[in-house]
Specification:
By secondary structure, the protein is an all-alpha fold. It contains 11 helices and 2 strands. It has a two-stranded antiparallel sheet. It is globular and about 60 Å long. It starts with 8 loop residues before the first helix and ends in a 14-residue tail after the last helix.
């Protein structure tokens, strides 16, 4: 198998130590990303035990030693893959909900996007793993906090943009959404439920998140004249 070797620093940096350090960091980031990209589909398809370091290295066109250099263990690589995929999913849910005009459309767009992916189940496996490997828990904790913070920011932005009246604080809404998503999806996977069934169950459990207020009033103003209006325009 032909391996892609990182160019020697002197080839790209002309001997400048600062350029050498930047080139080394950049090459390291690219290799880490390359390994994560290769490992994620293998872990999702085969699980932690079914995907070997050799298989992952081959898929990434890298050496097995590079996996242990950047991630130390296969378990650490698994957890980082799962955390990254969950954050990618969170970003996708925000994008899917941008065109929502009502709280109901917003909740449905989020639920449909989340339940169409296996990223939540993948992350749940990482949660189980960190129960036995507490050294990996800080990454999970940072991921969860970022998940909630970005979810709260996105929800607050939508509420402000449309003038909705939220029934809960943005932080509470975000944490509740992801708690429901994880619970419903794990139960649904165990029961063999379809994505449509998972989405319906999520929406049922979530219930109403916000009230649609301002736009409804404006729509009434530009509609037909109210039945109680008299000929001279007086109510």
């Amino acid at each position: 198998m032909t391996k892609k070797l990182v160019p020697a620093p002197s080839e790209a940096t002309n001997g400048d130590p600062r350029h050498t350090a930047r080139a080394t960091r950049s090459a390291g980031r690219r290799m880490r990303s390359q390994l994560l990209d290769a490992a994620s589909p293998l872990f999702r398809e085969r699980g932690l035990s079914g995907a070997s370091i050799t298989d992952i290295a081959a898929a990434a066109d890298a050496f097995p030693s590079q996996i242990t250099y950047y991630f130390r263990t296969k378990e650490a690589l698994f957890v980082e893959c799962a955390c990254r995929e969950l954050l990618y999913l969170a970003r996708a849910t925000e994008q899917a909900a941008l065109t929502a005009r009502t709280p109901q459309e917003y909740s449905r767009a989020l639920a449909e996007t989340v339940t169409a992916s296996d990223s939540v189940a993948f992350f749940a496996e990482a949660l189980t793993l960190t129960r036995r490997r507490q050294d990996l828990s800080p990454l999970v904790e940072r991921t969860v906090e970022r998940l909630h913070a970005e979810g709260a920011r996105a929800y607050a932005g939508q509420v402000a943009r449309h003038g909705w009246r939220s029934l809960r604080s943005p932080d509470e809404s975000s944490r509740r959404f992801w708690a429901v998503a994880i619970g419903v999806i794990l139960e649904g996977y165990a029961m063999g439920r379809s994505p449509d069934a998972l989405c319906a169950e999520m929406l049922r459990v979530l219930g109403e998140q916000a009230k649609f207020t301002g736009d409804a009033a404006r729509l009434r103003l530009v509609g037909d004249r109210e039945p109680s209006t008299t000929e001279n325009g007086e109510g």
